Each structure stands twice: as structure tokens, then as C-alpha cells.
Amino acid sequence: MVKTAVELCGITLDNPVMAASGTFGYGAEFAELYDINILGSFSFKGTTAQERFGNPTPRIAETSSGMLNAVGLQNPGVKKVLSHELPEMKKFFKKKVMANISGFSVEEYIEICEALNDEEAIGWYEINISCPNVHGGGMAFGTDETLAALVTREVKKVAKKPIIIKLSPNVTDIKKIAAACEQAGADGLSLINTLMGMRIDLKTRKPLLANRTGGLSGKAIFPVALRMVYDVYEAVSIPIVGLGGISSAEDVIEMMLAGACAVQIGTANLTDPYICRDIINSLPEIMEKYGISDIKEIIGGAH
Amino acid sequence: MEQRFFSVTENRQIAPLRFIMKLFAEEAGITTPGQFINIKLEGFTLRRPFSVCEFDENSLTVAYKVVGEGTEIMSRMGIGKKLDVLTGLGNGFDTENCPDNPLIIGGGMGVAPLLPLCKELSLSGKAPKVILGFHSAEEIILLEEYSSYCNDVTVTTSDGTAGMKGRVTDAMDELHNCSYIFCCGSEGMMKSVFEKAKCPGQYSFEERMGCGFGSCMGCSRKTKNGYKRVCKEGPVFDSEEIIW
After folding, report:
1. Domain spanning B103-204 has what CATH number?
2. Where does the pLDDT of residue A136 fall: very low under 50, low under 70, confident under 90, or very high at 90 and above?
3. Hey, is A281 helix, strand or coil?
4. Chain B contact set for A100 (CB, 8 A)
5. Closest alpha carbon within chain B to A64
6. Do the chains contact at A23 and B211, CB–CB below 8 Å?
7. Do the strands A200-201 and A163-166 form a parallel or antiparallel pair, or are they unpaired?
8. Taking CA atoms, what residue in B is nearest to A62?
9. Which of A161, A220, A209, A168 has its CA nearest to residue A189?
10. Residue A18 in contact with residue A263, Cβ under 8 Å?
11. Interface with B, mutate which of A62, A69, A73, A80 (most B CBs under 10 A)
């Protein structure tokens, strides 16, 4: 029997596989398909202080080996998440969930953390400073090391859960941002969020997305994500959650060799709603194939 | 929603760029007219959603138009091809609370999901009237099928090459006693129908989708009852909740 358990900021995960924020809602759609308690955990939909509709449609476009989205943080707002989404989620998910928190100001991040602090179902905060599809906030914090450190420091002061800062790949040197977050008190990092991109419709000669630009995700970005996790692993000593285009057990192992102690599956959930289950089921066999008896031991193994 | 593996049992052109694909599985998974399926295509990240124009326990048929790479590949698929399909998606039409003589109005490819509705209404003893609108005669699809379930089918074409020259709303002029509408077509067409009809009804919407089963928020729409997902709470919306 191979060992698949890993630890993330003091909480043990049965396996390193989590579902990524924005592709898994609050779990309900997937809980209808399989027992999602087999997951290490999942990160729920990016939550803001107030309800948000997000961007106009079309919000989705196909790309080579990937897709663009410009959803723009549609969510019911933190109060409704606490009163409705989380009570529903707790009926079918018994593990600690990761709360993805998005904001347009430092005060908003703080307000959401304070609102969620006493919710026992939440194991970690994933502080999203990297959403490319909203204006004034979102990625603005994640592309400036001073602002990234400011959000991290202020959130850390009030957070009663470990804080994992979700980093943007849309920067010149992600190592600097990562190090700034670590110095400001981050308990962990998750990377990468989507890469900014666009597509233009040849018939209308206009951008396909109503927002004009969107975030690129899917298999196309896996090598980029892998490289960034590899670089950040050398720049910080806090745990890294690796994500970006992972769609197989082999990808999970590759991402962990680069330095991730856990991984998130995003876009692949949209193509194949059973992908997390299938990856978790195939992980022991793939570990055996590559002579891995304890998955913890391969974290950062490529360095 | 269920994932099922279907075999292609028929795939033929019925009009320029327009095709019919019949799929077989042990359980087709469609329970209500107006539901849709989401087909996985090799080499693509996003599945392709299609409304269902005919279904029974173990088969379903989609009518599709070739508009891009994905549908172009589909048009070349042979008999026996296996497809990974998410089936039973969306809410479908509510047929229980409509009067005995509803009006069904379809435009272009939007005629497809209304066909099983027409069948169900007719078989349940109701007497729907049907208006099908197309740009021109060569784009007409599923007319024979409609005529087999309903003896009051009006066709309109914008260029007058078949049926009545004009739009579906022009054909509505001749029907004075319409009290309920089922409609699917482009959003502009549906809005015109809604404004002309001045009666309750159900409208089926199209949107670009990420997942097709409610998890990505890619296809959301504002309604009078809050934000709804076209793929999950839709694609059919009650006229009273639609914000045009």
C-alpha cells in the first residue's frame, strides 16, 4: 500500500488532490455524481463581501488545449455563503474546505475573513489576489509585491485560519511576489491563477469574450505553472499548492516533484466531471509505476 | 445529469451545414423535452452542448449546424463512433401547466428542442399550433417531423422562398387567440415574440457554456428571480422572470 497523505499548513489531507476554486462551485453539482469526500479537499467559489453577478456573457471561449474564462467572480456574497451554501455543503462534505476569498480592497478581504473565522468547516483561507477578470482589486494586488505584502499582512492579523495566498502568473518575477507574501506572514501559497489572454471572432472581428480578455487555463498552461512552482519552491520555505492544467495522476506527481505539497484540479473538472475521482483512484498505481511509496517524499524532488 | 457513452447510429446532412445525429445508449437519460446534452470531442477542452430534438429510453437525436471546428468534426463522424456524453442537462419545458392550445414558435436551429415538446403536447391530447421561421427554404429542418405531430404548422421565411414571407411575428398576426407560448430561437427573435405575444410562456435560451452542469458560472443570466445558470436552472425560463 502506497501512502498518499500530505500535510497542508498543519491539516492532513488523505491525498494531495483538491478541486480548484471556480470550477467546483460549493461542491453540490459534483456531490450528485460521486462521494466528494474522497478528495483531499476543495477550494470553493471565490467569495466577496457582497453578491456579484460578474461579467456579461459570453464569458467562455475555447483555445488550443485550454479555455478562456471571464466570469468575474460571480458569487452570492459572504453572508449567503454562510447562511446557505456552507450548511448545504456540510450535508455532503465532511472534511475541511478551503475558502477562496476575493476582494476589491484590503478592508474587504478583512471583512470576509472576519465573517468566516468561526466557521469550523473551513480549514484554510485562499486569498485570491490574482483574479484577472475584475477591475480595481483582484489581480492588482497580486502583481505588485508591496500590495501583495500589504494584503497578506493585514489579513494575517485577523485570520483565524492558515492563509494561503493565490498568486498571479501575470508578473515579471513571481519569486519576488512569493517572497514578499512569505515575509508578510503567509502560511502558504497557491499558484498559478489563470494567464491573461484573448480570442477574436473572425466573423464579427470582435473579441469573443464580452470582457474582451479572460484567463487562460487548461492543459496549455501546465508547463508554465510547473515552471513557476519550481521557481517559487526555491524562493520560499512555506508550503505550495500547485495548480494550472493538471489533468492526470502523472501531472500530480510532476507538480509535486516541482515543489507542490498539494495540487488543485481546475479546468479538467469542466471537461470531465469525474476527473478528480479518476485521478485519486489511479494515483496509487501511477505511484507504484514510478517507485513512489510515500507521496510526501517526492515534494520538491526535482530540485 | 449523467455521463453516458453513446454510439452514433445515424449522422446525415438534412440541409446546407445542417445535420442530424442519432445516438444510442442503454439509457439515454433525457426525461423532459427541452433538455440538452454536452458532447466531449477529442482534442477540445470544452464540451459542445446540443438540444435534443427526439428521444426515447435508449436513443436521442440532436440537430446541429456546422459553425466551427467542433461541429465540423462531428459532421464527419461515422456510424459506430463512440461519444462521451453528459446527458439529462437543464430543466426542460414544463408541460403540465399550459392551456390546451399553446403556440410553439421556433426560429432556425431553435426549432430542434421544441419538436419533442410538440410531440408530448400532442400525445397528451393538447392541440398546439406551430410557427417555424427560417431565413430561406434551404434552411428548413424538421418540418416533416413537426407535421407528423401537428396539423397546424406555419412556416415563414424572411426571403419568401417557402411558406409565408416574413418573420415568425408576422405569422402570429393571424392567430388571434394565443394564450400561451413556447419559444426557442435567437434572443432577438424571442424578444420580438415576447413583445408581440403579451401572454405567458416559456423561452429556451442559448449561451456559451463552460461545464454545462452548473459548476463554472460561465452561462449566467440575470432574471427577476435573481441570477440563474442557463445550463442548470435553464435553458428554459418562464416569461415572467425573464429580463430582456
Report:
1. 3.40.50.80
2. low
3. helix
4. none
5. B44
6. yes
7. unpaired
8. B46
9. A168
10. yes
11. A62
Residue B56 and residue B109 in contact, taking contact as beta carbons nearer than 8 Å: no
Q: Which CATH class is domain B2-89?
A: mainly beta
CA–CA separation, A99 and A83 (whole Å)? 15
Q: Which A positions 44-83 lie with beta carbon below 8 A of chain B?
A: 45, 53-54, 57-63, 65-67, 69, 71, 74
Residues of chain B with CATH 3.40.50.80: 103-204
Say which residue the cell 517526492 belongs to: A298
Q: Confirm or reject contact between B65 and chain A (CB < 8 A).
A: no
Letter for the amino acid at A225? A
What does the pLDDT look like over B195-207, one tens digit per residue? 999 899 999 999 9
pLDDT band at A208 (very low <50, low <70, confident <90, very high): very high
**Grid cell locating B173:** 398576426
Average pLDDT rounded to a whole number, residues B181-196: 96
- The answer to ipTM > 0.95 is no
Q: In this predicted model, what pLDDT tens digit does every residue of B100-159 receive, in sequence order?
A: 999 999 999 999 999 999 999 999 999 999 999 999 999 999 999 999 999 999 999 999
The residues in B 184-243 lying below 8 A from A, measured between CB atoms, are 207-211, 213-222, 227, 232
The CATH class for the domain spanning A6-298 reads: alpha beta
Tell me whether residue A113 is one of the annotated catalytic residues: no
CA–CA gap between residue A36 and residue A40 (Å, rounded): 9
The CA distance from A51 to the nearest CA of chain B, in Å, is 10
CB-CB neighbours of A232 under 10 Å = 26
